[in-house]
Design goal:
The protein has two domains: 5-85 and 313-349, NAD(P)-binding Rossmann-like Domain (Rossmann fold, 3-Layer(aba) Sandwich); 110-300, NAD(P)-binding Rossmann-like Domain (Rossmann fold, 3-Layer(aba) Sandwich), CATH 3.40.50.720. Helices cover 35% and strands 15% of the residues. The protein has 14 helices and twelve strands.
Length: 356
């Protein structure tokens, strides 16, 4: 009998001990081309389609240059699950997977989510406390110049000075952790998330506002949304114009949430004070990007907010392996992203194991 096949479509040097449970269960592992992750080529989709044709499951990290497309999933007639090592699933055609009755699982691990939250805090403090500018000044022989004065974040009760306002766009696990980290700073937190339960705003000690209000009132706008048709380009020319003059933009979510050309113009004009960005429209960031011309008004990071020693993808890999084993036994994993597909999936695969 032929072993069921799982394609690691975006491999990242998975430790053998994490993959061993799959092999022990009688699964044949195949690996995709690492170039699919980093190099855009017309043939990528055809190569992935061929590699996935017999797969009952697919798993891997982000693969932006070769998304898991409808065409790839349609060709894999036995495919029942796509399991990601990461939180984000914007490299998988979710609508197609749902139409085809395929589970998409992600990995909102503590290492990933909380790592991003800590980087967000670092960005906020680095920008408002002018860490880059002060370092450069000392190296250049300048000392305590007025331009190096920074922003005091919290309310100064004894002086009657109000706190700055930090606006969180999206109020999932990462944003909630950011709110927890901000709590001792005595800042005002407002948040926009039309899908979050009211209890999330209570946990974050955040005032629930609409998007326009958040842009108008926030001194810092920090994005914590997944990339969907609704969130793509949710900050463009019009939204930047609505922002409070002198606001700072933080993005540790997805690059295509913000139109970079519009952001660069808003910073160059002085309407936006600056931005700290871990994610970009195209990655790696092109050398001719206008963001590179803005000096210390922009803090750039190579999509590594969750990249921590001893953490990074390993917890997500372990979760993906368990999700794969569960689904291939005909059971529903605990981390399904497209939950609306579950009833149909159970009709197709419920209780039907492909494992020996």
């Amino acid at each position: 009998m032929t072993k069921p096949e799982v394609l690691i479509f975006a491999p990242r040097d998975e430790p053998q001990e994490l993959l061993q449970p799959l092999e022990d269960a009688g699964i044949a592992l195949t690996r995709g081309n690492k170039d699919w992750q980093w190099i855009k080529r017309p043939e990528n989709e055809d190569e992935m389609l061929t590699a996935a044709r017999e797969a009952v499951g697919m798993m891997g990290t982000m693969v932006r240059c070769s998304p898991v497309s409808r065409r790839v999933m349609e060709s894999a007639q036995r495919l029942r699950i796509v399991a990601k090592y990461t939180v984000g699933v914007d490299d998988v055609d979710i609508d197609a997977a749902t139409d085809l009755g395929i589970l998409v699982c992600h990995a909102p691990t503590e290492a990933n989510c909380y790592g991003v939250a800590e980087t967000t805090m670092t960005f906020i403090l680095a920008m408002l406390k002018k860490v880059q500018e002060r370092d450069a000044a000392v190296r250049e022989g300048r000392w305590r110049e007025p331009v190096l004065a920074t922003t005091y974040l919290g309310a100064r009760i004894s002086e009657g000075t109000p706190a700055i306002t930090i606006g969180l766009v999206g109020l999932g696990r990462i944003a909630l952790r950011v709110a927890q980290l901000l709590a001792p700073w005595r800042v005002r937190i407002i948040a926009y998330d039309p899908y979050a339960h009211p209890s999330a705003f209570q946990l974050a000690n955040a005032e629930r506002v609409d998007y326009a209000t958040l842009l108008r009132e926030s001194d810092v706008v920090s994005f914590h949304v997944v990339l969907t048709k609704e969130t793509m380009w949710m900050m463009d020319e019009a939204e930047l114009a609505q922002c409070k003059k002198g606001a700072t933009i933080i993005n540790t979510a997805r690059g295509k949430v913000i139109r970079e050309s519009a952001l660069a113009r808003a910073i160059a004009s002085g309407h936006i004070k600056g931005a700290a960005l871990d994610v970009f429209e195209d990655e790696p960031l092109p050398m001719d990007s206008p963001l590179r011309q803005l000096g210390d008004k922009v803090l750039l990071s190579p999509h590594s907010a969750s990249y921590n020693i001893g953490g990074e993808l390993r917890p997500g890999m372990a979760w993906a392996v368990q999700s794969m084993l569960t689904a291939l036994r005909g059971q529903v994993p605990d981390n399904v992203y497209n939950k609306e597909v579950i009833p149909r999936w159970l009709e197709r695969f419920g209780g039907a194991s492909v494992l020996g």
